[in-house]
Fold this protein.
Amino acid sequence: MIGKRFKVVLTTLAALGLFMTNVQAGEVEVLHWWTSGGEAKSVAVLKQLLEKEGHSWKDFAVAGGGGDNAMTVLKSRVISGDAPAAAQIKGPTIQEWGDEGVLTNLDSVAKANNWDKLLPSVVSKVMKYDGHYVATPVNVHRVNWMWANPEVFKKAGATIPTTWAQFEVAAKKIKKAGFIPVARGGQNWQDATLFESIVLGVGGADFYNRAFVKLDSKALNSKTMIRAFDTFRMVKKYTDKDAPGRDWNIATAMVINGKAAMQFMGDWAKGEFLAAKKSPGTDFVCVAAPQTSGMYTFNIDSFAMFKVKGADKINAQKTMAKLIMGPKFQEAFNLNKGSIPARLGVARTKFDSCAHDSMDAFLASSSSGELVPSMAHGMSTFSSIQGAIYDVVTKFYSSDMSSQAAAKQMAMGVQSAQ
Amino acid sequence: MKQVQDSSPTLNEDRVNFSDWIQQLLPKIVLAPTFVITIVFVYGYILWTTWLSFTRSRMLPRYEWAGVIQFEKLFANDRWWVAVKNLAIFGGLFILICIVLGLFIAILLDQRIRVEGALRTIFLYPMALSFIVTGTIWRWVLNPGLGLEKMVREMGFSDFVFDWIIDPEMAIYTVVLAGVWQSSGFVMAMFLAGLRGVDDSIIKAAQVEGASLPRIYWKIIIPCLRPVFFSAMIILSHIAIKSFDLVMALTRGGPGYSTDLPATFMYTFTFTRSRIGFGSASSVMMLAAVIAILVPYLYSELRSPTHD
C-alpha cells in the first residue's frame, strides 16, 4: 500500500519536474548600481517584465563609488568562476571583458530580433566583441547639453549663446547683473564633461575623434587643443569660487533656483528639473553646448552578459537580453532616466521636447559622422587613459598651468597610461 | 596526585597525561587560526601585491613578469609625487600637532581641576566619530559659502577670508586640521594616563628641592612619559599613512588632485582606472616607506629600556 502510494507521489513529482524543465524558468543575477530614485524605478521595470515571462530576478546591487565598488565585486566574482548573468558594463570596458573570454554570445537573440536593423551602427559596434553581440544597450545619453534658466538670461539682458564668443558676452552681462553665469560642480568627471564639450565645439568632430578616440599625440598636443584649454580657462572666470567638491545635482539646483544661468551636463540633469516641477522650453531650456549644435557626444549604458552554466539560466539570460531591447522596456526605462532609447522604432509621443531634440540630433549626427563617444563618461577610451586625461584637465583647472604645458602633459600622460 | 592514584591507576594516568597535553597545547590551538589568517591575509597578500607590481596587470591580475616598468611609470607620474609630498606634510604636522596639543591639554587637566571628568569627555569625544563623519562636518564648516567664512562675514567682518579648502596650495592643511581635531583628544587621554602613573614622591622631592612647576614638568615628568610618546607616535603614524576616509570625505582629493595621499592614489589607480600593476607598485612603495621609517624607530625604542 505504502509502496503504491509512494510510486504515485514519485511519478507526480517526476511529471512536475519534467514540466518545469520544459518551461526552463531560470534565474538571472544582475549586477548594477542603479539604486537611487529614478534609476531604481527603471530597473524595477525590467524585473517585472522578466517575472512576467516566468523567470526570476536576483538583484545584485552594489551601491556607491559611481560603479567602482560594483566593478571590484564583479572582478572577484569572475576570477572565482562565479560570474553573474548580466552586469552593468559600458563602452570599451566591454572589450576588456571580452578579452578575458568570459562574455557569452548573444548572436541568436540578436538575429531573431533583428538587432542589426534596430541599432545604429555606432551603437552596435560598442555592443559587439570580435563581431559577436555580447551586450545589450539600454539607453543613450547626450552629454553635450547646456541647461539654461531663461529667466536669468532675461533679467541680465543676455541671449542664450551658440558660440563661445557669444558665451563670453552673455556671461559678462549675467555676472554684472549679480548672477553666477555657470553652475559648476568641481569634481573631475564634471570638469571633464565641460572640457570635452569645449574640445568638440572648438575642434569639431574630426579633431575630437583623433584626440580622444585614436589618441593621436599630434592632436592631443596641438594648437587646437591649446585653444580648447584657453576657452576652458575663460569659462572658469564665470564660475563661483565655492564649486570645488560640489555634486552635479547641487549645481543643477543652482540653475533651477535662478542663482545661476547655465550648467554644462548630460541629460540626466533633466530629471532634476522635472522633479522640481519645471517644464522644458519655458522654465528651463536645453540647447547644445556652444558650437556643437549638430553634434552629439553619446554615453550608452548597457548590460554585458556573462557565460553562465545550466540551460535554464542561459534561457533566462537570453530572455532578458530580448526584453532589454524590446520597445516596452526601452520606453519605460528612458522616460524614468531622462535619456533616449538606444534602438529605433520606439514611440516618441510620451517623451518631452528635450528628448525629441536628442533623438533628432542622434539620427542626424549618426549619418553626418558627428556622433562621437564621450571621453568624460568612459565611452571613448579605457579607464586608464580616461584617468590620465582627467588628471591633466583638473590640474589645469585648479592651477595656473599654461595651456601649452597642459596640452603637452596630456599627450605625455595618455602615452604613459597606454 | 595521591588521590588520583587511589582508584584505577592506568586510566587516571592517561587522563592526567591528556589534560597536561591539552593544557600545553591549548594556547597553540587557540592561536593557530589567528596565526594562519595573519600569515595568509597579511603576509600572503603582501607577497601577492609585490608580485603584481612587477607585472603588466590592468583590469584583472596577470602573472607574466614585466620587470620594473610599473615603478618607472610611477616615478615619472606627477600625481604620485603630489601624493608623497602631501603625506609628508600631513603626516609630519598631524603627528607633531597631535602630540604637542595632546600633551598640553593633558598637563592642564592634570592640575586637579574641578570638572575634569566632563572636560575629559569633551576632548575625547571626537574620537567616537568616524573619519567619514569628521570629514563631512569639516567640509561644511570650511566651505566658504556655507560655513565659517560666511558666518564671520555675516557678523560684520565682510573682508574675512578663510578659503583653504578651495585653494589647491592650502587644501592639504585642512586635512591636517580635521585630523588633529579628531585625534588629539585621544593622545591627551594617553598622556593623562601617563601623567597619573608618574610617581608622586619624585615630584614631591623635586618640590622640596625648590624646583619650579614648569621645570618639574620639563625635566622630570615629560622624560618619564617616554613610553607614551612611543605609543602615540606609532598609533598616529599608522593613522596618517593609511589615511583614506578622511580625505575622501573632506576633499575627495581635490581641488584637482592637490590633496591626494598615497592611499587614495593607490585606490584610484587600482580600482577606478583598472591599472592593478601600477596601483600595486604604489602600495609596495608605501610599504617600503613604512618599513624604512618604522623599523629603525621600533628597534631603537624597544631596545633602549635594557640600556637604561
